[in-house]
Amino acid sequence: MRKWLMVTLSLVIVLTLAACGGNNDGNNGGGGDSNNGAGSNNGQNTEGGSNTENEGGGEQAESERLRITIGTGGTSGTYHPLGVAAAQIFSNKGDNITANAVSTDASVANINGIADGTYQIAFVQNDITYYAANGTEMFDGAPVEKVAGFGVLYPEVIQIITTEDSGIETLDDLKGKRVAVGQAASGAELNARQVLEAAGITYDDIEEAYLSFGDASQQLKDNNLDAAFITAGTPTGAVQDLGASNEVKLIPIPDDIRAKLKETYPFYTDFTIPKDTYDLAEDVDTVTVSAILVISKDLSEEEGYRLAQAFYDNTADLAAAHQKGELITLETAIEGMPIDLHPGVAKYFKEKGIVE
């Protein structure tokens, strides 16, 4: 009898241990995978808020993590620092968002990136956005249907830069000179071509060079270039960089040429660059388009709303990142927007009284 009891007790102990081991495997297997797989937003999120218990004892899931890539521009321009700041806002202050800002060839490349799904938000000139949505200019016959409006940011100023020792005083003086016109097929390049055409100048009259803003600045320093077209918010890093070693001069666009530009291309507006922007001898008259943010229509209304809320609730962070960030406000977010707003952005703007 004692031997039978000993055997029975041993079996009970073995069965009990096996049962405990099976429960542990279940907690570290299927339950753990849910935190690292489809349910990882609930287990890993620390930025979008904490989970809350419902009355039934289960968890009420927060919004699904949204991961986006922001197309900016060259590192010497204005888009890139603002894009980095925007990514930080989305990631640190948004509702369960992870954002990454990448340097790009700017407007046209960014539109194409929205079209192919590489970027979910991008910095673009309003004129390029208009061309893309309507299938004109470089998008001739191939409108980009995925692009929607997110917000107007600040003026993008056409700056024709040279140095004091170049001898260039007017647009007509560019004839026969080595002139950077922006990267090939970029928004800046199209602006350069339109300004030159309004002045009666074609690429046949100059030695055009397709360069980024930073490369153009360096080529001017090295005397391998005579002038450069730059379309960017002022002050622009590439122009400031040139001014650190050379005396910068900006070529004005006279009244008659500005009038011709505005008549042909309604998105242009007059702009005066104050002389203290780059320590110039005098104010310089030119024209401007607008920098805007566009967003992919692939994002849902709820996702667009979360992004708009994070961005426009924290514009002070943009002002701290770059001087142009001071001009980014909710009140001016739709002024000059050439395309329809994303439904989620429109919803946020309606709540704020910006649109009806």
TrEMBL record:
Residues 35-54 have a biased composition (Low complexity). Residues 28-62 are annotated as: Disordered. The keyword Signal applies. Gene3D superfamilies: Periplasmic binding protein-like II. Residues 1-18 form the signal peptide. PANTHER family: SLL1037 PROTEIN. It comes from the Bacteria. This is TAXI family TRAP transporter solute-binding subunit. Keywords: Signal. The keyword Signal applies. InterPro entries: TRAP_TAXI (IPR011852).
